[in-house]
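Um, can you check?
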Amino acid sequence: MSNALLEKIKKKEVKVCVVGLGYVGFPLLELLIKKKFHAIGFDIDKKVVDNAIKNGVPATLNDKEALADADCAIICVPTPVEENHRPNLEFVESAAETISKYLKRDSLVILESTVAPGTTEEILLPILEKSGLKQGDFYVVHCPERIDPGNKEWTVQNLPRVLGGIDEESAEAAFVFYKNVLDADVVKLSSAKAAEAVKIVENTFRDINIAFVNELAKSFDEIGIDISEVIGGARSKPFGFMPHYPGCGVGGHCIAIDPYYLIEKAEKSGFNHRFLKLAREINNSMPKYTVKKINKGLNMAKIAVNGSNIAILGLAYKPGVEDTRESPAFPIIQELKKWGANLTIYDPYLPDLSDVKTLDDALRNMDCIVIITAHEEFKRITPEKIKENGIKVVIDGRNVLDSNNIKRLGIIYEGIGR
């Protein structure tokens, strides 16, 4: 281990380059600047770089300017999956190729992008060794990103982190680095592979539990039980139960994507993750189930889907943000267009993708409204407001409205498991 590197980290003299300035990289770069590190961001997207500079954060499109003198490079690029659910690592590989051109002895490379177990050692390290340096000449670590867009309480600064290196020296270097960056615990694991698995396990846990309540919701719709009431009752138990909630679909880059990394990795090793696949199948079915609810509601109102006026309320995958990654809104919209519905789309956080400027405009002259995202603005829609606008059908894809009072006003209400 280079004592010189550790001293530079502790004195904040280490030069850091954050590669990829999206939802993960940009907040990290902001934090590094706030903590008085010598840091710069690198991205291949000019709009992203311009936005960073506009916000007072140093960034560049020039790889040499960003990496030539870097002591530490942190990879925060996207890791999407293809239509066949196979992980796409081209952004990670491209970032590694760029870093390898400037890699120097005793430097630290950290991969924060979500990847399958083994990626750091099997893919990242060999690319970095194209520099002519070998393992031991530099340090390589995986520290899975943890960030919850829109969460004011838990931020990149105070969220605990885990990390694992390709060797103990790498892990120690990264441990010292993050301890000087974060106001949170840093947990050092035995290997990069273990750290890679942590992120996937965290989000797969949530995916499985959401699939459980989504399946319950479908069942309770047939039985005639309100799942919201049941979950409220179950959560009164002070131990052994963690509430998860059904909905019109699972979005975001983490829960909707991460299980596929483990599924694909296990298949290559000869193991079939039947449980994980089933959870993904159930959660992927919820947009079509929601469209089925829309059809049912309109039929009850004696309104044909073809030619009906439907307001889609929400494009973001979660409330309070403008992030649309893997949002269930898009398959729902696509399916309704096939049926010939006239759609009016509105999301207060995404004005450029909205058809109208205000919620009042979105509610006007609608046969049906469909809540996709539980934005606070939508949760405040009253039964009286719905009645005033002559809306006949409400499809509550997040179970956030006053179902009983909506029904009392003679409006058809369909929730998910209500």
Notes: Residues 190 and 321 are 36 Å apart (CA to CA). The chain has 17 helices and 13 strands.
